[in-house]
Design a protein that fits this description.
The structure is a single chain. By secondary structure, this protein is α/β, with parallel strands linked by helices. The chain is built from eleven helices and ten strands. The strands form two sheets. Strands 2-3-6-7-8-9-10 form a seven-stranded mixed β-sheet. It has a three-stranded mixed β-sheet with strand order 1-5-4. The longest helix has 17 residues.
């Protein structure tokens, strides 16, 4: 069924206000009142007038591959499609359109759950054809979004990875990742895990508007410290850098990351593919109308005069003098903070199939 976007008033606790209708087989999740909302996330999101719905995802496989030259991994998995965090700028929003849904409110309120994710992952790693490689988690949507506190699918997938000693890199905006420090530490003990906490801003007002159901920056940085204390190499991603809105915060974010013991730091430039351009434009009009023209102009400065440029090799960093200035600012601030550009490399030779002798 084709969907349509219906503009409406701003919704408290949500990243956007569009509500396209559709009908799916719902997944019944029995949770206590408000339990689907991560206690580590923004408390103001709890009184949103639009409830989140969960649907079964009947995928028969779990690992996706890519050959993109500017993505630092070739394989990834995620137990969820859609993301309740509601980040208005999320480049993954258009993926919901393949499901007949909208990149707007549907993306953050209609979450598809791969209930068989751990079993599918175990089957994939058990296959004779599987060659150990780093698996990325949250390459698209966040594997530690609020429902993970209840369903624990990501944790169960990590337990499978620990069983096989297959390396994994986790990226998240949720401090809930520190809950799984024990499993991640088991993997890290054989150099098979690292975690990046994505920090967009230290300004709580801006965070609540940009990323209404994410953990606060303080809690994310605390998670970095807790993971490193447990022996899990953890760092930060300043992501996304939004020219004219948060790029000036890069030095402060990296200084705070250094205090948390960050083992590495990187950044990505804002990407606005397809419907995300319109959603972000609307967000600017609602939240920072006096800065809208300036922010859009700055984005065009790093995207060759456009709001988005998907060219491989530059889509993560942008191009032109403005992008070069941001890159120089980041590099200088990272060096001043004493944070390496990358953490310890992950190994693939520790991999073991079920029943294989422990040789390491």
């Amino acid at each position: 069924m084709a969907s349509r976007e219906t503009p409406g008033p701003a919704l408290h606790g949500r990243g956007t206000a569009t509500q396209p209708p559709n009908r799916f087989d719902r997944l019944h999740v029995q949770v206590e009142p408000d339990a689907h909302l991560d206690p580590l996330a923004d408390e103001t999101a709890r009184d949103s007038p639009v409830a989140t719905e969960y649907f079964r995802d009947a995928s028969k496989s779990i690992i996706s591959t890519n050959d993109s030259p500017d993505v630092p991994f070739s394989a990834s998995f995620n137990p969820y499609r859609g993301c309740e965090h509601g980040c208005i700028y999320c480049y993954a929003r258009p993926t919901h359109e393949f499901l007949g849904l909208s990149a707007g409110l549907d993306f953050e309120t209609r979450i598809f759950v791969k209930e068989d994710a751990p079993e599918l992952l175990r089957a994939a790693l058990s296959a004779p054809s599987w060659e150990s490689k780093v698996l990325a988690v949250s390459g698209v949507t966040d594997c530690y979004q609020p429902i993970e506190r209840t369903l624990r699918l990501t944790r169960r997938c990590l337990e499978v990875l620990a069983e096989f000693r297959n390396p994994v890199g986790v990226v998240t905006k949720n401090a809930l990742v520190a809950r799984d420090a024990d499993v991640l530490a088991e993997l890290a003990s054989v150099r098979c895990a690292n975690v990046a906490l994505s920090v967009t801003t230290l300004d709580e007002g801006l965070r609540r508007a940009l990323e209404p159901r994410t953990s606060t920056a303080d809690l994310r940085l605390d998670a970095v410290a807790r993971l490193n204390a447990a022996g899990v190499p953890a760092g930060v991603m300043v992501a996304p850098v939004i020219p004219g809105l948060n790029d000036h915060e890069i030095p402060a974010i990296l200084a705070r990351a250094a205090q948390a013991g960050a083992r590495f730091a990187g950044y990505t430039m804002l990407r606005l593919p397809y419907a995300v351009k319109g959603l972000f434009d609307d967000w600017l009009e609602r939240h920072v109308p006096d800065r809208k023209a300036h922010v859009l102009s700055r984005i065009e400065d790093v995207r060759g005069g456009k709001l988005n440029d998907a060219t491989y090799g530059t889509r993560m960093t942008g191009t032109g003098p403005a992008a070069e200035l941001i890159a120089a600012l980041f590099k200088t601030a990272r060096a001043r903070a004493g944070i390496p550009s990358s953490g310890p490399p992950l190994r693939v030779d520790a991999f073991r199939r079920k029943g294989q002798l422990d040789l390491f």
